[in-house]
Amino acid sequence: MSISRRCASAALLASPSVALLGWSAPAQAQGRRNRVVIGLSLEPNSLDPTSSPSASIGEVVHYTVFECLTRIEESGSVAPWLAESWSRSPDGKTYTFQLLKGVRFHDDAVLDAAAVKFSFERAQAPNSHNKAKRTLFNNIVGIATPDVHTVVITLQYPDGNFLFRLGENTAVILHPASAAQASHYPIGTGPYRFDYWKKGHSITLRKFTGHRNTSHVALEQAVFRFINDPAEQAKAVFTEEVDLLFNIATQNAQQFQANKRYQVVIGASNGKGMVAINHRRKPLDDVRVRRAITHAIDREAFIQRMLDGRGRVIGSHFSPSEPGYVHLAGVYPYDPAKARALLQEAGVKTPLPLTLTLPPSPYARTDRSMLADNLSQVGIELKSEEVTWPQWLEGPFKGHFDLTMINHVEPLDYPIYADPDYYFGYDSPAFRELMARHAASDNPRERQMLFAQLQRHLAHDAVNAWIFASQITAVARKGLKGWWMNYPIFAHDIAAMRWD
What we know:
Layout: H1 5-14, H2 27-30, E1 35-40, H3 55-61, E2 70-72, E3 78-80, E4 83-88, E5 94-99, H4 113-124, E6 140-147, E7 150-155, H5 162-165, E8 192-198, E9 202-207, E10 221-226, H6 230-238, E11 244-245, H7 253-257, E12 262-277, H8 287-296, H9 299-306, E13 311-313, H10 336-345, E14 352-358, H11 362-365, H12 369-376, E15 380-386, H13 389-394, E16 403-408, H14 429-440, H15 444-460, E17 465-477, E18 480-481, E19 498-499
Parallel strand pairs: 1-10, 1-11, 14-15, 14-16
Antiparallel strand pairs: 2-3, 4-5, 5-7, 6-7, 8-9, 9-10, 11-17, 12-16, 12-17, 13-17, 18-19
Helix pairs in contact: 1-6, 8-10, 14-15
């Protein structure tokens, strides 16, 4: 059951465990300096980021259990990781990677070129559900392994983001002998190994003593605690059940800022918050109806009310943090009269009943009346349907929905709009042609112009009702060092964390 901001505050004040912010820490928390407990809103449905689309998987296993050839730093820059070095051919189509020597998986299997080749060919397979298949793996036309520590990858088209994409969790390296169990018992090369999963509650990782950098890893244990209710999240912080609460409901930030035990940090991400629209259902297949929905939403008010002002209005599936971003928020200004006129022009009989499916995320559930009030003013009557994250993946993500509120956090994921089988069912040959021209171009200026056209095309078609570019609000107990403020990808570098 969701609760409003007012109810959440009342619940906190009513709770005897958090009413006094100056109370002393529990003894178990005071002596807990060999581990970290991170609070997350969503529990992953799998632990294999290469076969399931949920970004919450990477929050648990990327940088911890699994590693990639490259590493994406907090700044968004790309650094060596399992590949200690690489070279690129003059035409930008061939990359030669030199792997680190002496790297072992948690089961003592050796990392070699064959494991890399296996992982990428697995992602390319016809039955693969890797969400980077279109953006990364379908562009690979050749994988050679001249020796056990060398991998040569040949691309169909040059990709200026290739090294970045190799650092995302969809490109982690698995071993052929253990890949099949990655969803429930992942075995990687990372500084932490999987320990156990208490469904509905937490996932525990333990330090892998065979890691090449184990002497620099301070924490013996990492626990990911899953709590999606804002009031319960706040209680978990004040009772010191969690040390770091990631991407919290921003309305809770003030109470943490007032307490000297904690620090609140607001950083950037590549998230794109939106009302996703099912193009397979009438009358949502009519661009006039989709434009009406966008005109009906007061996006500035949404950001103020739902995100406490921590976000920027956007008008397409691109984040202001991404190079080449075009600001298109003004294409569909808040205009209820225009929205009503578009619905009338489309022949829509009002009131139009639609169902809005809400996953268990603070941005979707903090005050669900916001979108309902906006759309009711133009003749669209919303029925809110709250679902768990697994239910969202089995429902809306498989195309069973009218509208759904969702935040796409993956960077540079615009190629999803070239896939008519993707969950919102957008089918545009013109957009796919633009995508192909952009991919094939090796002229920087032409690529930049085509990148802008891609953004404008999505905005023109009002594919979804984009609302905000999200910021990340996190609260951590003072003394915990090494955690990120900005999140170009959703991952937690626990190996860099320590207690002062």
